[in-house]
Amino acid sequence: MTLQRTAPSRPTWRQRVRDPGWGVIFVLPMLVLFVIFRFVPSLGAIGMSFTDYRLSGDFSFIGAENYSRLIEDDLFFESLRVTLLYAVMYVPLTLVVSLGTASMLHHVIRGRGLFRGLLFLPYVTSFVMAGIIWIWIYDSDGLVNGALERIGLGPLAFLSGNQAMVLGSLAVVSVWKSFGYSMLILLAGLKNIPEDVMEAATLDGAGAWAKFRRITMPLLRPVVFFVVVIETIVAFQVFDTIYVMTGGGPARASYGLVYMLYDQGFKFFDFGYAATIGVMLFLVVLLISLVQRYVLDRENT
Amino acid sequence: MTTLTAPPATATSSPPPTRRRRRRSGANAWLTVLLILASVFTVVPFIAVFVLAITPEGAPTIPQQVPDEVTFDNLSAVLSASSFLRWTLNSFVYSIVSVVVILLTAAMAGYAFARKRFPGSNVLMWSFLATLMVPVQATLIPMFVLVSKLEGVNTFWGLIVPTLANSQAVFLMRQFIKGLPDDLFDAAKIDGAGEWTVFWRLVLPLTKPVLATLGIFVFLWHWNDFLWPLVIAQTDEMRTLTVGLSTLNAETVTRARLMASAAISVIPCLVIFGVLQRYLVNSIATTGLKG
């Protein structure tokens, strides 16, 4: 994907700078927005992480103090652990649900459009809305505990129990709200698998499971990988559901990385420190993308 | 960065050969049952919101029993609370202004990147794409400081303008415009059309389908956006619906009232979904746009 085009008589760089032409004019509005609201804040985050910026706007440069504080901050490592634990629950769950529903949609003919629509429905709502509904669903007199009561179980403390329970409950809400996207991407991938390969396998007497393992999975691998990377990045940015449903609790059991950033910034107004957490978040996302690059490159060679 | 690399899909739904129908039907019945269960999982919470919203306050309701009394008091109470309408209005302003400005500026930038050569266009396109790697949460603090320095806290511009720099939109427009036939642009040039004429009369009409897709997504992104409005809209009258709902949730509002608010706030999205479902679903498969 390169923009380089070779023209027979290319104007020199000097000429092009002197007469930037219409290209610059068309790109200018978006460029201004990007410079002010993407590039400046990106550099600003790094700059602020070396200051003790407070709400008042007073600050002085303190070197790498925020970073050394971060490394000694148990809360930071706890929030990393929480986020990682959440991702470990969310990513496989969303992959299983979206791959499962996509495969089912791929094979079912009658009512496919209807099912596809119904399964995709939660995607158009907000996490705030999802959080509010699911607080009730998880509540002691809510939907799930109501059902459990019928069969003589519960009530379970979904949002106030132990850490695994709370993070698992939050992961389920996020899966409910957003698996529709991955489902559609996987469904598109399934449709791209050539029909004749499947036909040949069927003629050779391959069962459904063998076909799934030997043909579907290898051919779908790039798409599955794409979904895993996207969803991992999404998992590390979890905030809305935590804010609405648990407020980071109980006892910081769901105190994720972005929630810590928000908490340090807008509860304690420790902007310099919060910006440092932002830089860390960026590094984590960068790491995930680099791993993706590495794996893709290795597969292509 | 990865968000745009979804493999494109060609939607082909060929009916299966009839000879396999019978053998498949048993498995198909099971799959249908599973799909019904999955649909129950996605749809029941919505039904529950609406049931709870029309149950009288404090009256027994699901899951214990189906409410035997229906009331619209909760819904009308929510609608007559002035702040709720104000939040709805704010959400509409936030979403619709963003849609209009992003579509226009992204189409312009996409056109420039696809069809014009100018100094630094390569570097610029790549720097736009590189910003996809920086999560918005990572730049939340400097963005807030910047906007508050410019006195944009609790203003519409402070809410809207910083969210308009959208590289996914630019990239999508660039890819689409690149794919348009060169002949059209050559013909327009020969006819002596000016740059603006080409943009308004050629580029915009030809990109209508992709503009529509992008418009729906931008609307949903902004309508459902939470973190930025949360930090920038600090007064009650500047809140968007998502932020307003979260404050209702934190306050001691009765459950019936909260659910009534949630029910009303989800209606615009359900309308969009109802009208454009097929379209929305197909465009995710072909563009890989991610909310």
Automatic annotation (TrEMBL), chain A:
UniProt-listed Pfam families: BPD_transp_1
GO BP term, example: transmembrane transport
Gene Ontology cellular component list: plasma membrane
Keyword Mitochondrion attributed: no
SUPFAM superfamilies: MetI-like
Family indicated by similarity: Belongs to the binding-protein-dependent transport system permease family.
Name recorded for this polypeptide: Sugar ABC transporter permease
